Amino acid sequence: MKLAFTTLGCPGWNLEEIVAKALKYGYSGVDFRGYLGEMEIWKLREFGADAATTRKRLEDAGLAIPCLSSGAKMYSPADSRAKSMDEVRHYAEIAHALGASYIRIFGGGLCGESFENALPVAAEFLNGASEIARSAGVEVLVETHDDWVDTNWLMAAFEMAKYPKGVNVLWDVHHPYRLAGEDPDDTWRRIGAFVKYTHWKDSVMVETTQEDGGKKQKLSLTLPGEGNLPLSRFYELLKDSGYDGWYAFEWEIKWHPELPQPDVAFPCFVKVMKQLAAH
To answer: How far is 153 from 36, CA to CA, in rounded Å?
Structure first.
């Protein structure tokens, strides 16, 4: 089992700490989503002029960089589409230099647009991103995220794009289940043939009281295994299909600083995944 973590979960760690903690806790890969406060990592020397040194540092420690998690979006409003495509270009360049196989992009929010109108835009973006990535020898992965957690629509975008070569899916196992109410088996039936990489997290829904006294369900992230996502079913679907890709822990402490620190969460994920693999 190939385990990685995204640096979203350790925004304060420098490269030395990232390498040391990855080895300490039993990981074999690091997925860079920001570094020391800078989310657009191509701007940093460690991933630009010194990319070869960074790559060697991880490889010498026995660590891979399986994916670079960009902030580019498959669909975005007209005034930001060029920026997203430029980001794909930047990440393709550094992915090649770092030896990463994949670039993650988001589905993107519709911002009030209908899916019917968004689909041609998304398809055009996928085809453009495919050309850029293939020229760098890498692949683009669209995460089940944003308004595309309903995998029917995600696959509709792939179909409209005519399934461009080098464009596949990053299955964030949490989002379609928790945010779209999809059954894991249904999700897998739709996207399984395209899944090359996975993100993992856990959560519960908690009832909160609003100012008017009404009740509302709110998502609350938990340590792996302490929520109620069907993690075992996600794992079974992947294992039974012969999936040999990465299981990446996405601990969103960058966005939710109240969460337990990475020195608590990162070893917890390894423990839970080893338990799943043992059954």
So the answer is: 35
Where in the chain are the domains?
2-278
Predicted TM-score (pTM) of this structure: 0.95
How far CA 41 is from CA of 29, 35, 106, 207, 215, in Å, comes to 17, 7, 17, 38, 41
Alpha carbon separation from 77 to 81, 142, 201 (Å, rounded): 6, 17, 29
Note the pLDDT tens digit of each residue in 190-237. 999 999 999 999 999 997 777 777 778 889 999 999 999 999 999 999
Answer whether 68's CB lies under 8 Å from 100's CB. Answer: yes
Q: Which parts of the chain are beta strand (E)?
A: 2-6, 29-31, 67-73, 102-106, 139-143, 167-172, 195-200, 202-209, 215-222, 246-249
Q: Which CATH superfamily is domain 2-278 in?
A: Divalent-metal-dependent TIM barrel enzymes (3.20.20.150)
Would you say 20 and 27 are in contact if contact means Cβ atoms under 8 Å apart?
Answer: no
Phi–psi pair at 171, nearest 5 degrees? -85, 100
